[in-house]
Amino acid sequence: MKTAALFLALFVSGASVAADIANRPTLTLDGAKAVTNAALEYAHSKTAPGAAIAVVDAGGTLIYLTRLDGTFLNASEISVGKARTAVLFGKPTRVFEDLVNKGRYAMLDVPAVAPFTPLQGGVPIMVGGKVVGAIGVSGAASAAQDDEIATAGAAAFESTHQEKVSFVPHDQVDAGFRKDANLIAESGFRVNASRRDGPGEAEVHLSDTDIFYVLQGQATVVTGGQVVQPRNLSATEIRGTEVSGGEERRIGKGDVITIPRGVPHWFKQVDAPFTYYVVKDAE
Fold first, then answer.
1. Cβ neighbours of residue 23 closer than 8 Å, sequence gap 6 or more
2. Distance of CA 122 to the CA centre of its chain
3. Which of 166, 169, 184, 259 would give a disulfide with 210, using CB separation of 3.0 to 4.6 Å?
4. How far apart are CA 171 and CA 45, in angstroms?
5. Residues 250, 201 share a domain
6. What's the confidence (pLDDT) of residue 161?
7. pTM for the predicted model, two decimal places
8. pLDDT-based confidence at 16, cuts 50/70/90?
9. Dist CA 187 CA 181 (whole Å)
10. Could you give the 3-state DSSP secondary structure of residue 62?
């Protein structure tokens, strides 16, 4: 399949296409707990006398907060301020403390326009070059240790969520088309080698946008309309016997078609063998 490498490079890197709406990655509650656990592990390894640890999402909303016994009471509020400052400015808060210490006192007027805590101990969390949240720490043995604990929590999370290059050799790709296989599965997308030898059921994917690239054969695809005799195959997929209404298209070799999540689609007629790549862009 000479087009395999080109297709994977083109569509895996650009699977999410948005005109007026952009998808912004952000920490989940589970992610915030993972960051906190990594920070706590580091704090214990350094025998920190106490600490309050706050984690916020990409918008600065607090999603997880913990305070070790013995930490002074206001440490919780300060840790939240550090985390929010780090995420909203996309920089470690030590940068702002250094600026103030060097005489740039105008930085202290920033609270008039945004939450601002220019004390080290706030660190943004980066995944795929984007800020997905931040961690703030207060109440450890020193300001420097606050920063060390926050940096350790962020770094541990980032190290387990690094984007990686995926490669599938041609023999595995060819074998994949013979059995309609999943070639690549990552958290945000999947790439399938798909084959159809006849019409299929109507489908609606509630969490995936499908991008088809046809390699061989022709088919009539119906998109939109209503699914006839719908049933839930899973919590995120609906199947039915056919699609009523909708728009018919004849697709063939070299054609690309995108079907957004939530749109019914149905292979009404297929000239076999019909093979195509599917990139599933997960929400």
1. 16, 283
2. 22
3. 259
4. 48
5. yes
6. 82
7. 0.61
8. very low
9. 17
10. strand
